[in-house]
Design a protein that fits this description.
The radius of gyration is 19 Å and the shape is globular. A hairpin with a 4-residue loop joins strand 19 and strand 20. It is built from no helices and 33 strands.
Length: 331
């Protein structure tokens, strides 16, 4: 793990997590800009100004990057080539969630309690489903079913083709995280200190695991294990089928950052300012890096590199064979 480059933004890189597509890295900052950089060198490509002081969580695909805005309550569609507005869709509340792209659609939840399916190219509404709470986090897809959690403590399973409810599961606290899916189960954490594993087809609870604080992160699934983090400051590895604890590792502060897995290494950030790399099978510490600012953002691993943001306003890019640190390019 060598530091490749650093971009200093004008605000905190908070819940917004970097994304990677075709050798470009994209990340939002609380300075109100969405940045596009050359992933290999950190050279500046463009930045898109929304006036937003929120998270600007994004997803990126062919030709268009999508970013939600909490100040303006809309979803932006921005060209990946020039960083120009393609279209925007106005909801009735702040949009904190990361969009999910599915074929010709982009799916987004809003604090207005609606879950929207929009035409990817035009932004036209295809359908919407009214939930009982705010939808502040991204959804996940399995087959033709999309799963999303709300502040009402309900995990909703919705048919992605027509927007009809398939089933719903009620936790004992708000679901403020993005669900994760495998071939048969869907996993979702809650403010009630639990991670739930549900049958993806029926919503039946298969097992639950209790942490010592709220679960705000998205699970990573690797090697037959469910990797999750919690505001109790720990990273846990559970047996995917039974929910039994395999190992846990404690940091010195709360962990909002969702774990990523690169090869046999579990990577996540902590409020203690450190980026951690743990051995997947044992949970033993392989390395840690002090980024000198709380890490709420989740790391992204792609293209042989790792990208992560910090509350000190920096976006960091690492690789395993880098030749040292470079400053990212400016306009």
């Amino acid at each position: 793990m060598r530091l490749r480059w650093v971009l200093q933004t004008g605000g905190r890189v908070f819940f917004a997590s970097p994304t990677f597509f075709r050798n470009r890295c994209y990340c939002g900052s609380r300075d109100g800009y969405l940045y596009s950089l050359d992933a290999g060198t950190g050279a500046f490509v463009w930045r898109f100004r929304t006036g937003d002081e929120g998270n600007l969580s994004n997803s990126v695909g062919d030709e268009i990057i999508f970013a939600g805005s909490n100040r303006e309550g809309c979803l932006w569609a921005i060209s990946t080539e020039k960083g120009e507005r393609v279209w925007s869709y106005q909801t009735l509340g702040p949009v904190f969630a990361t969009p999910l792209e599915v074929d010709h659609m982009v799916l987004i939840g809003s604090s207005d309690c609606n879950f929207y399916a929009l035409d990817r190219k035009t932004g036209k509404s295809l359908w919407q489903y009214k939930c009982g709470g705010e939808l502040r986090y991204a959804s996940c897809l399995r087959g033709s079913t999309v799963y999303t959690g709300g502040s009402d403590g309900i995990l909703y399973a919705i048919n992605v083709e027509n927007g009809r409810l398939i089933w719903k599961f009620k936790a004992q606290g708000p679901i403020h995280c993005t669900p994760a899916c495998d071939s048969s189960l869907v996993f979702a954490g809650s403010e009630d200190y639990h991670l739930y594993a549900l049958d993806a087809l029926t919503g039946e609870k298969i097992w639950q695991f209790r942490t010592e604080n709220a679960v705000r992160s998205t699970c990573a699934l690797a090697g037959g294990k469910v990797i999750l983090t919690s505001l109790d400051g720990r990273c846990y590895a559970l047996d995917e089928q039974t929910g039994h604890l395999v190992w846990n590792y404690r940091t010195d502060d709360s962990v909002y950052s969702s774990p990523a897995v690169a090869g046999r290494t579990v990577i996540f950030g902590s409020g203690d300012g450190h980026l951690y790399g743990l051995e997947l099978d044992s949970g033993e510490l392989k390395w840690s890096k002090n980024l000198e600012g709380a890490i709420i953002s989740s790391p992204a691993v792609a293209g042989g590199m790792l990208f992560v943001g910090s509350e000190n306003g920096c976006l960091y890019a690492f690789d395993s064979t880098g030749n040292g640190e470079k400053k990212a390019g400016t306009e």
